[in-house]
Amino acid sequence: MDSSIVDRPPRPQRLTESVAGYVRALVMAGEILPGNYVRISQIVNALDVSSTPVREALLGLCGEGLLELEAGRGFRVLPLGRGDIEDIFRLQGWIAGELAAAAAVRISVADLDRLTGYHLRMDTAVRAGEPYEVVEALNHAFHDLTNTTAQSSKLEWFLELTRQFATVSPAHEISISGRTVDTPPQRVAGWLEASSAEHEAILRALRAGDPDEARKTTSEHVAHSGQLLTLHLSAWASWPPADDPSGQRKVVQSEAIRRRRSEGVAIPRAPRSAELTNRRVKDA
Q1: How far apart are CA 284 and CA 272, in angstroms?
Q2: Over the chain (284 residues), what is each successive 10-residue block's mean pLDDT?
Q3: pLDDT at site 129
Q4: Among 93, 138, 99, 94, CA closest to 119
Q5: In the CATH scheme, what is the code of domain 82-278?
Q6: Bridge partners of 175?
Q7: 15-77: CATH, from 1.10.10.10, 1.10.357.20, 3.30.750.24, 3.50.90.10
Q8: Sign, Cα dihedral of 264, 266, 270, 275
Q9: pLDDT of the residue at 166
């Protein structure tokens, strides 16, 4: 991957945070299913760390509601509800929308040029079928620049906090004691294409200096990402249909995606809930 894609290096993580991120990724990717147990010894062996940071990380995940400590049995993965994901993305959408609105009145011509560069490179990468991680890095760069331009560190912090619990684009690797450890990929159907298309509308609002439109397009973008992740997670979460008895839950397409389809650009639709359920991930 081109190291110039991301301008700002990530904040160094404590070992406990890194371990928690690894276990969180296993759960969110369906590698450890609800009802199963996360064994301290397995994580210790997988990451080559001592048991202390692993136990601290698992206790922290209990505080998040991802795990539950059962006396004499260990840490059990709790069911992840559709409502939980929807709540998290509703909050993410509000925060991201406020950051975008603030950025619209502060962004410089130079930063607009950088955002345009990220968007065009991401669009090209999606069309060319470049590796998922390349597109993912460009997506992060686009949103990180928008968020930092808002100059609201507290809102940025809260947004990052919500991303720990649910995100369409989790880190594909983490650092453990100076070593890089891969995490399970979470390749959400339709997300790459949707992000590339919807960034056009966000960029247009920022370029126009329109805070209301920047807020609206960004919030809709985050909400759509949440819908796609909900469909993805329903592959193993076994959620009952929420408001669609046929199991064919509709995903609202943004105006940007409809426009791209009218131009003849193929954008895969998110799989239907029933199709995902039939392909449920089995615990190895």
Answers
A1: 25
A2: 47 75 80 88 90 94 90 89 84 96 96 96 90 85 95 93 66 51 62 85 96 96 87 67 44 41 41 32 32
A3: 86
A4: 138
A5: 1.20.120.530
A6: 180
A7: 1.10.10.10
A8: positive
A9: 62
Distance CA 209, CA 201 (A): 13
Amino acid present at 245? P
Q: Which residue has the tokens 């130079």?
A: 110
Contact 200, 163 (CB under 8 A): no
Q: How far is CA 219 from CA 74, 85, 197, 261, in A?
A: 39, 15, 14, 21
| SS3 track for the chain | CCCCCCCCCCCCCCHHHHHHHHHHHHHHCCCCCCCCEECHHHHHHHHCCCHHHHHHHHHHHHHHCCEEEECCCEEEECCCCHHHHHHHHHHHHHHHHHHHHHHHCCCCHHHHHHHHHHHHHHHHHHHHCCCHHHHHHHHHHHHHHHHHHCCCHHHHHHHHHHHCCCCCCCCCEEEECCEEEECCCCCCCCHHHHHHHHHHHHHHHHHHCCHHHHHHHHHHHHHHHHHHHHHHHHHHHCCCCCCCCCCCCCCCCCHHHHHHHHCCCCCCCCCCHHHHHHCCCCCC
Map out the domains of the chain as residue ranges. 15-77, 82-278
Q: Amino acid identity, residue 190?
A: G
> What pLDDT was estimated at residue 62?
93
Token reading at 232: 């993805």
- At 251 the pLDDT is 37
**pTM higher than the cut 0.85:** no
Which of 50, 53, 43, 45 is CA-nearest to residue 13?
Answer: 53
Matching CATH topology for 15-77 and 82-278? no
Residue 147: its pLDDT value, please? 95
